[in-house]
Design goal:
Blueprint lengths: L2 H24 L6 H8 L3 H4 L6 H24 L5 H18 L1 H8 L7 H11 L12 H4 L4 H12 L7 H23 L7 H16 L5
Helix pairs in contact: 1-2, 1-4, 4-5, 4-6, 5-6, 5-9, 5-11, 9-10, 10-11
InterPro entries: Homeodomain-like_sf, HTH_TetR
Keywords: DNA-binding
Protein name: TetR/AcrR family transcriptional regulator
Length: 217
C-alpha cells in the first residue's frame, strides 16, 4: 500500500470512528456531517472528498455494530442438524440482533445507498480486513454477500444435498422470509408497532417457520 492509499484509509477511519462515537452516544438518527467533522477535526466538506453521500458513511459505521451478529452466527448454526434447521437458526440470530438495533440494520440492509451495495461492502472489508478474521469457511462467503435475499438463500441451496427440493420452492420460501423480516423491520424503524425486540423476534420467526413448512410438502 502506497502513502496515498495509507492516507485515504486513515482518513476514512477517522470519519467512521467519529460516526460510531455519535451513534453510541446519541443514536444514528442524530448523526450529522457537522458533528462528525467536529469530532474528526476536519470540515464538513472534507467528508464528501472520501464519501459520496452521508449514507455511505452511515453504512460503514453501522457495519461496526453488525460484527456482534456475525460473531454469534456460527454458534447458532452449530445447533442445526440439517441445512433447513440452520436456515431457521440463521434467521433467528439475525432477527435477534437486527430488531435490537433496527436503525443500524436498516442502514446496512435496507437504506438506499445511491450505488451498488456489493461495491460498498467490498470497500468496507478492504479497509477493515481484520473483521474477516476468525470466521469459518461456512460463514466467510456470507460476509461478502450484500444482498439479503441471496445471502439467506445460500443455506437453503445447501439443503438440496439432503432432500429433494425444487429451486422454485426455495426461491419462494426465501423471498417470503425476507419480506416478512423487512416488514417487521420497517414497522420498528418507523415506530408503527409498540413491540419490544423479543416479541418481534418471536412473531417473525413464527411466520418464517410456517412458510418453511412449504418445503416439507
Amino acid at each position: 500500500m502506497n502513502r496515498k492509499d495509507i492516507k485515504i484509509k486513515r482518513m476514512l477511519q477517522y470519519f467512521v470512528d467519529a460516526t460510531v462515537q455519535i451513534m453510541k452516544e446519541e443514536g444514528i438518527e442524530n448523526v450529522s456531517a457537522r458533528k462528525i467533522a467536529d469530532i474528526a477535526g476536519y470540515t464538513s466538506s472534507t467528508i464528501y472528498n472520501y464519501f459520496g453521500e452521508l449514507s455511505h458513511l452511515l453504512y460503514f459505521a453501522s457495519m461496526r455494530f453488525v460484527k456482534d451478529y456475525l460473531l454469534e452466527l456460527p454458534s447458532y448454526l452449530e445447533r442445526g442438524e440439517t441445512y433447513t434447521e440452520k436456515y431457521l437458526l440463521s434467521w433467528e440470530c439475525f432477527c435477534k440482533h437486527s430488531f435490537a438495533n433496527p436503525q443500524i440494520y436498516h442502514a446496512v440492509y435496507i437504506a438506499d445507498l445511491g450505488e451498488k451495495p456489493e461495491e460498498m461492502l467490498a470497500h468496507y472489508f478492504s479497509i477493515y480486513s481484520s473483521d474477516l478474521v476468525g470466521f469459518s469457511d461456512e460463514i466467510r462467503p456470507l460476509l461478502f454477500e450484500s444482498d439479503l435475499t441471496t445471502r439467506s438463500k445460500a443455506l437453503l441451496d445447501m439443503a438440496k444435498r439432503e432432500r429433494e427440493i425444487t429451486d422454485e420452492a426455495i426461491e419462494e420460501v426465501n423471498e417470503m422470509a425476507v419480506l416478512i423480516w423487512e416488514g417487521m423491520m420497517t414497522a420498528l424503524v418507523n415506530k408503527r408497532r409498540n413491540t419490544d425486540p423479543q416479541e418481534a423476534v418471536e412473531k417473525t420467526m413464527r411466520y418464517i417457520r410456517n412458510i418453511v413448512k412449504i418445503l416439507e410438502k
